[in-house]
Amino acid sequence: MGGSEESTSRYRSIIEAVRDGVFVVNLDGTITYVNDSLCSLTGRERNELVGNTFDTLVESGLVKSAEFDRFVTTINSIADGEIQDEILTFEIDQETEQMVDVRVSKHIRDDGTDDIVGVVRDVTDRERRARAAEQKQAVLAKLYQVGAEDALTFEQKAERILSIGCEYLDLPFGFLSKIEEDTQEIVHAVGDHTLLQPDETAPLEQSYCRKTIQSDDLVGMQDAQAELGEDDPAYELFDLGCYIGTKVMVGENLYGTFCFAAPHDRDREFNAGEREVIKLLGQWAGYELQRQRFEERLQGLHRISQQLLVAETTEEIAEIAVETVLDSFDLPVTAFWEYDAGDDVLRPLAETDEAVRIVGEAPTFERDDALLWESFDSGDIRNYEDLTERPEVYNPETPLQSEVYIPCGNHGIITCAATEPGAFGEIDIESLRLLEALVTEAITAVKREEQLAERGEALQRQNDRLEEFADVVAHDLRNPMTGAVGFLEIARKTNESQHFDRVEQSLERMEELIDELLMIARGDRQAVNIRTHQLQPIVEEAWSYTDAPKATLSADDPLGEIEADETRLLQLFGNLFRNSIEHGGDDVTVEVGPLADEGGFYVADEGPGFSDKQRTEIEALGDTDEMSGFGIGLMSVIDVVEAHGWDLTVPATDQGARIEIRTGERSE
What we know:
Elements: H1 2-17, E1 21-26, E2 31-34, H2 36-42, H3 46-49, H4 56-60, H5 65-79, E3 85-93, E4 98-108, E5 114-122, H6 124-147, H7 154-169, E6 173-180, E7 183-190, E8 201-203, H8 209-214, E9 219-221, H9 224-228, H10 233-238, E10 242-250, E11 253-262, H11 272-310, H12 314-327, E12 333-340, E13 345-351, H13 353-359, H14 372-378, E14 382-384, E15 402-408, E16 412-418, H15 426-454, H16 456-494, H17 497-521, E17 531-534, H18 535-544, E18 552-555, E19 561-564, H19 566-584, E20 589-594, E21 600-605, H20 612-619, H21 631-644, E22 647-649, E23 657-662
Parallel strand pairs: 18-20
Antiparallel strand pairs: 1-2, 1-5, 3-4, 4-5, 6-7, 6-11, 7-8, 9-10, 10-11, 12-13, 12-16, 14-15, 15-16, 17-19, 20-21, 21-23, 22-23
Helix pairs in contact: 6-7, 6-11, 7-11, 11-12, 11-15, 12-15, 16-17, 17-19, 18-19, 19-21
């Protein structure tokens, strides 16, 4: 018995030491034990609880009267053995939002009697964290929904998000500020604070936001008067009791701050969840401002793109480019240099007034006497964030501290500079990259027009020759069409369907060839339609179009497969066969066979062949005016070869002519 009492005493000493409240109730509802922690939770003395009935816990405030039935039901279920234990969560102080978990379970004594043991744990912090997490998730969902609405402008989104933030933090003022040259300007705001309204400005040194700008992290002040002091210029001017703000970065550059405040201090510190939400709001604002700025620059580029493309001189393009950078990109120190290949120098063509004011008239740069040559020669955009660290700078005494160079192909280079270091962010670089593409294309077009003007007579001769080519080829193709029509009359007399089909197929093929050749002559070449074909039927079909009954075709059967455009391949063989008949005679023998060394085929005849000069001209795609009477047909052949990416050679032969065409793939 003494051992049992000693054990019980030891257990009670342990229970008294724990921080959780403990009570014991017997099955008739009488409280038989409470520890000091439970007395602290209820605000009652031990003798006020022990020996009284269970409803005393209701009177003490540990269990709310509204929860009493649930509590009794749970205890009865445990007493009856229906459940082993149960955890119930209660709010015991509405004002402080104090919450407890009460775990009740059955305990069997050594004498066999049953007690109900309750362990009470303060879970206020846990419940607060859970509620804060739920609130944070809810506000993030609202913020995401606003941000995802593409129909809203940035101004509309900013106002809604500021309102959401004010509601979440339970603070009346929210504002987005812009910081420029030590001045804070309110861009968007909610709330009725007189000085926190759009377009209101204040010196940065008299603003709460100076603390945010100076800090590496978000700034939250629960009691601004205590933290700043009553004589602080910001507190004197704005009279804000609490404040939380985060920096807004657009790319790598500071834009301003995203803040919330109230005229009174706050009853609690800004918790981790609230601080995280405000940081996210600042990041969102930076991203939206960056996107808005880039879209505005894209619109500016779109507006001037037509001006650039219809400009008639490089000087005009340079002026447009510099004005665009000044007006649309807000980069006032800008210039354009044109590359003079003859003298190997970069000559200034256009510059802004601000550039002239800061550094004077732009000089002509000799090779390697200025930093921008590195960018021009490499073709890469270079962004120098601190020119004072570059000993090779053209003028060591320059007031410029940062500069970016944008080469425009081999035509010239655009430069933008600033008197402060690190002035150019990602948006600036990307915007200038897009402008460079437009400028380079415009200058290329201008120079192309200049070259075309210089070659006007040569181009006219070429156009005349192409027109002649189209007319002659069309005439040559229509001759066999006339023969096909005659054959159609014979077919009708014999009334054999295969002849009708054959003639119809021939006519369709001729029409395709005519259309193809006319498009080539007018510079409107269509892309080849590559398919796998047996070469033998195509050779035989092309031969059937020749009007030379005494001529002979000798072709290996089978010739294998070929990857080609069928209509263009018929055009090629038709011209080669016609050339052989015209120069070899009506009884010429034409041979077609595969090349032994690699993929491709040859066409040979026993005619007079080509001279060395003619072979060289054909292989070099020479001037057809010097290629005697067979130039037009071979021009068409060369065009088909080029369209397929093949190679054409004219080997020397002892007798006759031989043309070899290599396709790059072996025929099967």
